[in-house]
Amino acid sequence: MPAFPTIKLQNGVEMPIIGLGTWQSTDDDVRKAVEVAVAEANYPLIDTAEIYQNEEVIGNILHKLISEGKIKREDVFITTKLWTHNLNPARSLEAARECLKRLQLEKVDLLLCHMPASFDVGGTEHEKDVTVEDVWRGMETIYDAGLARAIGVSNWSVEQVERVMKTAKVPIHNVQNELYLYWPQHELAEACKKHGISITSYGSLGSPGRVNFTLPTGQKLDWASAPNALEDPKVKELAEKYKKSPAQVLLRYVIERGIAVIPKSVTPSRIHENLNVFDFKLTQEEVKALDAVSHRQRLFLQPFMEGHPEDPFKSERV
Ligand code: NAP
């Protein structure tokens, strides 16, 4: 299989710089998307999460492809995430075991805590006394138990990352946060560089397909509307110059910064298109020009964490 560039995590694990996102797709769409991505296009990484409710479908299709000899387990790096009701260190180890069962894996390649704010078992009440330091202690236990080759965080603020790095026995290996043309996260990138933490961008295409979402608990997640990054004039100009698509330019913008991408698609032609970004490069000047695009827009403010002491976005809420 073709080798894609990787990012070396602090513990030596090599994480592919590109993978397939799987959020907000039906079971059937995910099954087909993962099959096309892994068995046809050779995607080296699949990103899922407990809350996407598709770990079982992904586990089944991967198991089938491995049994048929079409892929080997080690060909695909699997990332999953613990949802908010499983962040409490009293529950996270067992929750990680449940993820592995659904994925039919002995070990996941990267396990993230999906948010910094812990909720009760029912998923509705804030556990205000559980700090990010507590959450991280649970993640370290999972790592020490050998259930994940690497561990990390998602949707944590720079301040939370800094705080945990002061006491962590196992460093944060990866931060997965919203990061795209209109939310470039330079401060986060600086902090992670300082600590040797790798970053994964989600929403690298500006998440054009996101629709408001209701969690199984009934909590609503609504997203800000925003201009479409795929239509940005500078992106379109570079797409024309390199004879690539705007999506490929948006992905390359992130990759040039040494940050991993996990574009989601259930459309076979786009699944192939999004992986086909290693035959061109943007110059440093072009990356700077994209950095200088003046519009700024965070898409994912995750309102359900509002009022929790570990709400990572409290300073951004109006
Ligand atoms: P995204 O990857 O920026 O955008 C996905 C959308 O773009 C889909 O609607 C897809 O449509 C469309 N698309 C894909 N390729 C395209 C192309 N080449 N040209 C035009 N449109 C294209 O957004 P995302 O799904 O929000 O983020 C990516 C992944 O990151 C998620 O799937 C998930 O795995 C992860 N994520 C993590 C978090 C977190 O809290 N950690 C939050 C959000 C997302 P089709 O599918 O119809 O082709």
Molecular structure report:
The protein has an 8-stranded parallel β-sheet with strand order 3-4-5-6-7-8-9-12, covered by helices on one side. It has helices at residues 27-40, 55-67, 92-103, 132-144, 158-167, 186-195, 233-242, 246-256, 268-275, 284-291; strands spanning 6-8, 14-16, 20-21, 45-47, 77-82, 110-113, 151-154, 174-178, 198-202, 213-214, 220-221, 260-261. The model has no long low-confidence stretch (mean pLDDT 95). The chain is built from 10 helices and 12 strands. It is globular. It starts with 5 loop residues before the first strand and ends in a 27-residue tail after the last helix. Helix 1 (27-40) runs parallel beside helix 2 and helix 2 (55-67) packs across helix 3 (92-103). It is 34% helix and 13% strand. It is α/β, with parallel strands linked by helices. NADP nicotinamide-adenine-dinucleotide phosphate is lined by residues 21-23, 47, 114, 154-155, 176, 202-210, 230, 245, 247, 262-267, 270, 273-274, 300.
In short:
This protein has 318 residues and is α/β, with parallel strands linked by helices. 34% of the residues lie in helices and 13% in strands. The chain is globular, with a radius of gyration of 19 Å.
Write the layout of secondary structure elements.
Elements: E1 6-8, E2 14-16, E3 20-21, H1 27-40, E4 45-47, H2 55-67, E5 77-82, H3 92-103, E6 110-113, H4 132-144, E7 151-154, H5 158-167, E8 174-178, H6 186-195, E9 198-202, E10 213-214, E11 220-221, H7 233-242, H8 246-256, E12 260-261, H9 268-275, H10 284-291
Parallel strand pairs: 3-4, 4-5, 5-6, 6-7, 7-8, 8-9, 9-12
Antiparallel strand pairs: 1-2, 10-11
Helix pairs in contact: 1-2, 2-3, 5-6, 7-8
Bound molecules: NADP nicotinamide-adenine-dinucleotide phosphate (NAP).
